[in-house]
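debug: dumping io for the single-chain case to check the tokenizer round-trip. Nothing else runs in this session.
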Amino acid sequence: MEARKILPLVTIVLLLGGILGGSFTTNAAQPQSSINVLEFSSTGALFMSPWNPVLGFTDTYGMYLWMHIREWGLYPAPDTGIPVPTTATFQYVGNYTVDPQTQAVVPYLTVPANALVFDPFTLQWVPISVAAANQTYASYIKNNAGNIPPGFLTTVSNYINNNGKAPVKIIFNFDQVPWHDGVNFSVSDVLGYLAFMWRWSTDTSVLTNQTDNYYDDEYASSVGPVIGLFEGIEIINDTSLAVYTTYVDIDPALIAYTIIPYPGVPYDLLASMELAVMNSTNLWWSDKTTSKGTLTGIDMLINANEIKAAAQALTPSKLYYFNGLSSYGYTFGNDLSTRTAALVSWINAHGNAVVSNGPFYVDSYNAQSNTMVLKNKALLGLPKIKYHWNNLVVPGVDQMVVGSVTTEDAGIQAVKSGTADIFLYNEPMNKIGQIPPTVTLIPTTSLFYDISVNPTSNIFDPAGPGKIQLNGVTINGTWLPGLALYDPNTVLNKDLSSYGHPDWVPFNLINSNVMKDPHFMFNPFGLDGVRYAFNLLINRKSLIDSIYQGGALPMLSAIMPSAPAYKMLNISGLEQQMGIFPSGDVNRAVAMYQQAISNANQTLNQYGFSLKFVPDSNGNPWLTLILPDGTQKTVTIYFEVRVDDPLRKAIGDQITVWIQQYFHIKVNEDLIQRKTANTNVFGKDMASFSFADHPWSLYTEGWGATVDESVYTSRYDVAQFYAPFIYPFNPTPSNPNWFYLWNQTIYELGQKLAFGVYTPQQVNNLFNDITKLDAMGMQQSLRVFLTLGLDYYMVNGAKVVIPYYGSSTGLGSMWGLNTAYVISATTTAPPTTTAPPTTTTTTTTPTTTTTTTTTTSTTTTSTTTPAPSGGMSTATLTGIVVVIVVVIAILAYFMTRKK
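debug: decoded output
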């Protein structure tokens, strides 16, 4: 039910952005500035997943270091979250229209005859037009329309379905940032990576009926969504190529960042690892158990000898990455022997095979002592890296000595005492305790919490006036507000589908016996006014002060206060307009609640029911449903509180007090674990006794917040949390046969924001849709947001300065350690401004009279987009989550939120 967001999402971002990397050194100079970094691992192990760029780096510990060893080409800026050029630039050309009704993209760019694709069936680079003309491929694509597996056949299908046209072309220009073993980066490394991706993500058995030993379904699910956006590759020269893609989005920078095929390791290292894996009986890309036994993920730190042997055995005949390219005049791969010699020399000198081209390289690793030393690549005689963004030169220190501690307190005390310079593990304020003046805290968000509200109210009078609108279904009759019959088909022993929906119950089927059944009750949260009043009631500031000791921010809607959209779209002002404040508004909430009960009574009284506040034996009044025969049923709600999370337990207890104190509703707290919530809250119909003898009414939800986002990403947040049939979690379920609350406008906005296409000219349209849905979601209050937790990375501020970091990830972003510098050292500090460089963009007139976009960035950086009134402060530090238009990738993004 809740996985920390950072790991799965960082893994997805790596794979989607172009994931492969490594590092190392020979004849290194001596470091002049050094910092000591500690990681926390309760087991004492420094890393918990294999170090390889294919399916490795799935643990926080390894990822935190790997992101500084590899390069990225493009990376989310720390001030806007929009991807910016670091060691690669891009040009954008778009020419397409969008059908306003179906949102279908009609492309107009012709994919040239020399655009290539790697064919894993023939192991050759071929023109995409030739692949599309292959009758075997075309027949399979035609017969499996809508169900093409990820990989090569999806690429061919894109070309066929678009009649050889593409909506977007991105031209990438790669800086020749040398690999750590001294070999220059070139397009050959990109082509090798692409060939690898197409081969390992394509299951050739669908056509050959023979087992494909190179196919890995886990890898296919990771890179498949990206490969599925390609239509062909055009080689321009040794440092540049163009990608034709089906992917369109609001900002060209998002497209470029999503599809850039930037490799993290040189092609010779990738091929050597691949050969080592295929020649071994116990190595794979990840740890897994198969019918052939247990396989171990190949590790560049541990399996250096196996990789070295494979490199020495690697000959042109064993390298398929460039097959077929010589037919088109290309000579890629002719430097194989030079490259493998450099790789072998590196392994001999350093004892591992981590070769990449980032700011740092791995100088040494000791598995016994759990220590690693990373050094500045300049100590190898290689130039430092100069990013295009802000002209930053990195890294800022010469050496990082990395160790681990087995308790969090040990890391905290080490920074306080000055024996460690950075504790690379985020801690809440109440754990950190008193902060010495020498310690600098780098903030990061942790989890945000909300209350999920069950709105079940499913009884109507078919003889009365009115209409109840559902998704594509209209039920004629009068809705009886708040009345609910849970498990109605079972209680009535009748299939209710013929009445419009299996959960909606005609009142004429409910007799006195049914009314006295425990399944028949009044659900106050079935009333819009009660849910809204509940939202206004919550005093987030009190929760933060008493439970977090100040270590959180109030969160009043689906848009996090740390997100760029919060300030850029003035969400704070919107929340105030909705009457929702951090300190709550008890008086207004109570008045709104009482009015909602009074309004419900006006309808219920016509059917013999009434709602009253009946005193108990102690004189305390409780909301009570009076049946037509005078029977009293005390209204009780069932609050599912996660006991495995102390914060959620404390929050749930306090909210229980407020509901009983101000709304006079009995609350039954169920203390549950994560697994129970997954099964009973999310996995069952809301109109059911999902907890055997009662339904759920409220649930303490939690979601991961440890990924930097851009202003555009908030479109997915509001759609995910407020609209039905997008994300399969109650109270906005994806199953149309379960109970759901219907609002046509919310549904349409949610679908548009989650799956629709916004062109670069529609930025303001997108922002308007985000704010509109956010406001409607706050009013509907199916989810009542509470708090955004804050944690902190501890830094020895007397020695180390970190000028850039992610606003949500803190030091979990590459900017942090890459730009860190020692105050007294001779190392040149990077500039401390976070203002991005000015970009120049020219827009050519579309060749059609439609909404075609044809924009070329003359500086080959990301295109600037207009900001709404008020602009955006460059002090707002944030990052981005890759935005994917295909449904699978969108769902992957949503799943990384789940807590």
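debug: round-trip ok. Residues 6 and 291 are 32 Å apart (CA to CA).
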